[in-house]
User: Which sequence fits this backbone?
């Protein structure tokens, strides 16, 4: 009877692990590199590239596919006003917190991203990282955003490394926005640049 119970428990554990792994892979591979909703979001700042929004990145109707770490969350009463659109929500990333994007497809035609940011406390930086669905669990740093002010402003263009742009068909990536210790940020309207659709 003992061995029967042990065997059943092991089967349940293995089965649960396989299901979790399958769901994670399925979610990671759900992204597509076909982007058609492209606008010149940053034209007022002399950037005439066409951009397409990350899924759920206006944060006005929830944040489909986004996830949070160490206290990061959607907040109301503070939205990027530079685009002139009505809105009331953004993401607060506290000290050591992280906002993680949905999985999305990037390839040789999506060389960069950009977003709106403001620093609400502290003097530290915001680090942008990526994680590949085909890679390990350790996110890799793309760049560090320094010099942010207390008012909303466009981020610098975040240029992707070759690992994200070498493929012509696409790889699935997740992007992490991580606040330095002792510093709090707000981010809003995260945009991908599919430059072949300019």
Assistant:
């Amino acid at each position: 009877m003992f061995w029967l119970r042990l065997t059943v428990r092991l089967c349940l554990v293995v089965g649960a692990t396989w299901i979790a792994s399958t769901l994670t892979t399925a979610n990671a591979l759900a992204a597509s590199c076909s982007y058609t909703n492209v606008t010149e979001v940053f034209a007022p700042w002399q950037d005439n590239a066409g951009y397409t929004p990350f899924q759920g990145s206006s944060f006005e109707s929830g944040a489909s596919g986004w996830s949070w770490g160490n206290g990061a969350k959607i907040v109301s009463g503070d939205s990027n006003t530079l685009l002139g659109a009505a809105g009331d929500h953004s993401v607060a990333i506290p000290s050591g917190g992280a906002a993680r994007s949905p999985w999305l497809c990037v390839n040789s035609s999506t060389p960069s991203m950009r977003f709106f940011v403001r620093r609400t406390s502290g003097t530290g930086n915001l680090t942008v990282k990526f994680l590949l669905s085909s890679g390990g669990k350790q996110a890799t740093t793309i760049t560090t955003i320094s010099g942010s002010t207390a008012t909303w402003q466009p981020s610098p263009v975040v240029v992707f490394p070759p690992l994200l742009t070498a493929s012509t068909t696409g790889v699935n990536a997740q992007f992490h926005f991580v606040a330095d210790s002792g510093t709090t940020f707000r981010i809003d309207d995260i945009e991908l640049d599919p430059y072949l659709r300019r």
In short: The chain has one domain: 31-197.
